[in-house]
Design a protein that fits this description.
Blueprint (H helix, E strand, L loop, with lengths): L9 H23 L19 H34 L4 H23 L6 H28 L7 H26 L15 H23 L1 H5 L14
């Protein structure tokens, strides 16, 4: 079905479906193995112990690559549209791309350095991934408004901005509650110390993560009318 999509719409569609599967599969394996409680674990908690750690690391790294490809195509799309409309500065478009690629790098760090093995590096990667991601989708929402009504409908812009606002609102308490947790562990049980902070932070984390997924889902329609052509030249001597 992905191959039948016009243009390059299959790229964000693949990113959304693959990332959703990465979260869900690692969660199911971790819960069935008894490594985490079913009630709202951290996303990273579901990819800390084997066998789910291998699945999580592999799938999240692929998600980071797909996200980087999607962001680069989005950059090219805006550059092409900007040739005739001039609705955004090229430097702003490039800055937004760089922020997005920083977020992808953070995702790779999260996938590679497990939470319990190297917690400081893992936490830095998560902060970079979520922080850069939130700023990226916010800037993309603003750019979308600037491209209206020629390249986007106001409905799509409103949806993107709503997702951005919700993600921004969830990101702040995610960091605040996580900073109040005094221990690094994955086997949380109700009633123990810092459990409430853990639950609130984890809820916000899942909110931000799926905010990114729903945001990239809105790219599919834009990517349908954009195709990449690779030309080769053969020179005879």
């Amino acid at each position: 079905m992905l191959c039948c999509m016009p243009g390059v719409a299959f790229v964000p569609a693949l990113l959304v479906s693959w990332s959703s599967a990465a979260f869900i599969i690692s969660y199911v394996i971790a819960v069935l193995a008894g490594h985490v409680e079913p009630l709202v674990p951290y996303i990273s908690d579901t990819g800390t112990k084997p066998p789910e750690s291998g699945v999580f690391g592999f799938m999240i790294n692929i998600s980071a690559l797909l996200a980087a490809i999607t962001m680069y195509i989005r950059y090219l799309l805006i550059e092409k549209q900007n040739e005739s409309s001039h609705f955004v500065r090229s430097s702003c478009n490039m800055f937004t791309l760089c922020l997005g690629l920083m977020g992808c790098t953070g995702m790779g760090i999260v996938a590679t350095f497990q939470e319990l093995a190297v917690p400081s590096v893992h936490d830095i990667g998560a902060l970079v991934a979520f922080g850069s991601g939130v700023v990226y989708i916010t800037l993309q929402s603003i750019i979308s408004y600037k491209s209206c009504p020629r390249w986007n409908t106001y409905l799509v812009c409103h949806i993107r901005m709503a997702i951005s606002v919700i993600s921004c609102i969830a990101f702040i308490p995610m960091i605040v509650f996580a900073s109040k947790i005094s221990m690094t562990k994955i086997d949380w049980t109700p009633g123990e110390k810092d459990y409430t902070y853990h639950i609130m932070s984890a809820i916000c984390e899942w909110t931000v993560a799926f905010g990114f997924i729903f945001f990239f889902l809105t790219f599919i329609r834009d990517f349908q009318r954009f195709s990449l052509r690779i030309s080769t030249e053969i020179h005879e001597e």
